[in-house]
Amino acid sequence: MAKTKAAHPEGGVEKFLVLPIIVLILAQMGTSGDNGALGLANQQLVDVLGATTPDIQLANMVYSLMAGAFMVAGGLVGTIIGWRTNFRLGAALCAAGELVMALSPNMTIFIWGGRILVGFGASFMIPSVLGLIPFIYHGKNRVLAFGCIGAASGLSAFLPLILGIVMQFGGFRVTFGVLAVYFALVLLLSFKLPAIEKPAEKLKFDGLGTGIAAVGLFLFLVGLSRISAWGLIEPFAACPFTIFGISPALPMAALGLLLIVALVPIEKRVEQKNGIALLPQSFLKTPQVRAGLVASAITFFFMGVQAILLSPYLQLVAGWSPVLMGVMALAVGIPTFIFAFGIPKIAPNANPRRVIQIGYIVMAAAFVPMGLSLHGSEVTALMWLGLAIAGSGAGIVSSHTNNIVALAVNERDASQSGGIQTTMRNVGQAIGVAAIGAVLLFGITANINNAMAESPVITPEVQQAVAERNITLMGDAQFEQTIADIPMDDAQRAELVQLNSDARIQSTITSYVVAAVLILLGLLSTRWITIFKKDEDGTEEAVVPETAGEQPFEPVVDREM
To answer: Are 164 and 245 in the same domain?
Structure first.
């Protein structure tokens, strides 16, 4: 083990700086607001720009893929050019992207102009949020600062309500114009960020690693996230092409994973040669860093479950209105904020391993009342309890996720880790969409086919006709429309509606169980969390594992403007 030291800015007890954390929280919330605005603008994009459903799906996907593919590179660029410069570059690109979307004459410019710019901007700005904290805050203040960033996802739950009002009275152009002003304000406020430290030596950009990582992550995220739309093996009707007659989802994900695996030895040589790499060896060789990355993925895994299962079920089956869906976001977001901010504030010396273990257990437990709330086409008040418990668990985990990574590595690697941590969020969300979407989709099909085979009412001809239909998560009315042209009597029709309702509930509960198990598997990684704090008495002293590719460096004050 080796010790690294970084002096406090003033050599004594560090005062918690409020303005910098506000700027970073606003940046974190801004990207959530952008995604929320797109969800609210769907109908207006259809009416004004002539958007189709594939256009809207592509608009959502482009941002996620851009951010996911280049987020790790954004962490490296920040280390080289300075975190404040990197942050400002990202904020400027986001503001420009929002303005392009506000002025777009068609969906082509909206997607390939605006969405690309915002996604690319986020890949610089969001890693900088986590990159700045290790240099601005130390000791208990750093724990609190990371907790505030975790709490930002809870605060973001208020944005759909606010943006919904703007959208209703001003339309999508005004809404995205407001977001452009928002990011411009974040850019201006960033000039109030304090000077930070950066390596004294001249660092080289890892172009080869960035290219391989971008392509690998792109293929991996696309493949995983499109399993429920394109099919696991047998291609669905919506599948754009096939590979040797099968769905391209798994082959794309597998190829992307192979590229990411191939990146590891390449990055080891790059770091040994240049002293810096896209993927530092400390990220791979330090078990606690891996535990932190797992925590990042699991927190956003729940968001994937929410996107593919919870929200569609509540809207399509239970018939929840947009207002209720906004309240649902608050039911998850408020507890997330309370715990992510409250734990570092009230218990700054809490054992991070225990905190994250409790968070995983609470998140998994949330699916119990959710499952018990399902009754036919309705959900009971237990759903609200489950949502609040899930938000609490996410907040508990978020309160220490970023900090345990920063505790385990040196200052430079801690700051650079923002890119890979954010990328793991995208990976976790993609896994949630892929895994739970597959369980739900194939579960509904299998359950309804088995139920029809066992039913004395349904004839073989009707069974065959229904089996050929694409039965997904849908309400009773939509299901009746799907089977409306199949010849059958009223008794069979009523029986099928009931069978679909039962199959839907069974598959949803199975999906909840699978989600809970996958979250609880995260407990296995918590044994890697062994560094609980950094001892500080005028100077910051942290015990970090030595790694082969780690290079010593002398920090200097970054005077970039």
So the answer is: no
Is 548 a domain residue? no
383: its two tokens: 């759903």
Quickly tell me which residue has 């660092």 as its tokens. 203
- Residues 212-253 have pLDDT tens digits of 888 888 888 788 777 777 877 888 777 888 888 898 988 998
Q: Pick from 316, 336, 345: which is nearest to 394 by CA?
A: 336
The pLDDT, as a whole number, for residue 535 is 54
Half-sphere exposure of 257 (CA within 13 A, CB side): 9
Residues paired with 542 in a beta bridge: 4
CATH number assigned to the domain comprising residue 48: 1.20.1250.20
CA 399 to CA 147: how far, in whole Å?
4
Asked if 167 and 224 sit in the same domain, the reply is no
Whole-structure pTM value = 0.77
Q: Pick the last residue of a domain from 131, 158, 193.
A: 193
Q: What are phi and psi of 98, to 5 degrees?
A: -65, -40
d(CA 181, CA 239): 39
CA 278 to chain centre: 21
465's CB contacts (< 8 A; 6+ apart) are 483, 486
The one-letter amino acid code at 139 reads G
